[in-house]
Amino acid sequence: RSANQEALRLFELGVDSSRRVDGPATAQPLELALRLEAIGAMMALGHIDDIFSNMESAEAIAMGLNDQRALASIATQTAVFLWMRGRFEQGLAHATKGLEAARMAQRRHMQMAAHQTRLMNLHALGRYAEASEEGNTLLQSYEPELAQHRMQPGWAAIPVINLCSFHASTLWRLGDLPAAQAICDKAYAVLRDVDHPYSSLLIDLVQGQIWMEQGRFDEAEALLARSVQTCKTRSVPTMLAVCTGALGHALACNGKATEAAALLESGFAERICDAAGPYARIFMRVGLGMAYRMQGRWSDAISTGRQAVEQSGEEYGHCTEALFELGQTLRAAGDIEGAGETFTQALGAATRLGMPYYQRGCSEALASLKDERHRA
Known about the structure:
mainly alpha, single chain
C-alpha cells in the first residue's frame, strides 16, 4: 500500500527476530523470505545500496539451502537492480537466467516476473521490437496472474500496471499511438479500484508522454504536475526525478521555458536523481537542454544536450532522443555542420532500433539542412 518506510522498519525487526529463532534450518528460511519480500519497498524508496546488500545476503542463504525457487527469484530481482543502475545488458542476462530457473521450478508467477524484467531491460536498451514481443507474450500467456490486481512479494508496482507502463511506452516509441493509448486505458481501468501511488505514477508518466507526442501540452503539463506532487506527498522518491524531467519537457513545449529551466535546475540542485537510476538524469537533462534552447541560451543548451547524450550509456533509445534534441539545439544555434552530423547519428540509431518518430524527424531535419546549405 506504498507505506514503504513502515515496511522496511518491519523488515529490520523481522530479520532481527529471525536470528533469535533456535536452529538455522528454521531461522534461515524465515530470513530469506523477509529479504525477498523487502526488495519492492527498497526499490520504491530508491535505496539502491541496500538492495545490493540485501540481494547478496539472500543469495548466500538460498545457495546454502539449495533453494532453486529462491535462486530464480533472486536472479530476476538482481536484473531489476541492474536496470536501476543502468546496466541493462547484464540485467537482461540475469532476467533470462531467472526465466529459465522459474520454468524449471514450474512457478508461473516467477516466470511472469522474469518476462516483465526482460521487457524493462529491452525497453531501456531501445530494442523496441523485441520489447513489444515480450509485452504481447505477457498479455497473452499470463492473463490469470495479471488479473490479480494486488501487490506481489518483492514488487514495487502492481504487475499488470508495470506491464502496461512499459508496453505502452514501447508502442508509442514504435509509432503506434492508438495501441499505446489502449494499453494506458486498460491500466486506468484497473487503477480506478486500486490506490497504489507508485503504480499510478508509472502509467501517468507514459500518458503524459503520449499527450506530448500528440501536441496536447496543456493536458500533459497538468497531469505531470500532479505526478510530481504525488511523488512528494505519497513518498515515492524513485519516480520524482523522472516525473520532474517529463514535466520540464511539457512546460518547455508549452511555451514556459523559464519555468521549466527553474524547475529542472532546482531538481539537480536538490539531487533528486540520487533516488532513481541513471535514466532519470537523461529525462531531466533533455528537458533542461530544450528549455535553455527556447530561452536562446545556446551555450548552456549545447552543454546540457551533450551531457544528456554522454550520460545515456546503455540507454540506446533515450540516447537517440537526446541526440535528436541536441541536433535541434545545434541547428537553432547556427551550427549547421554539427547539427547535420548529430541528426545523421540519431537517424542511424533510430533506424537500427526501430523508432519511426525519430526516423521521420531526423530525415526531415537533414533534408531541411540540405536546403539551407544550398540557399547559403
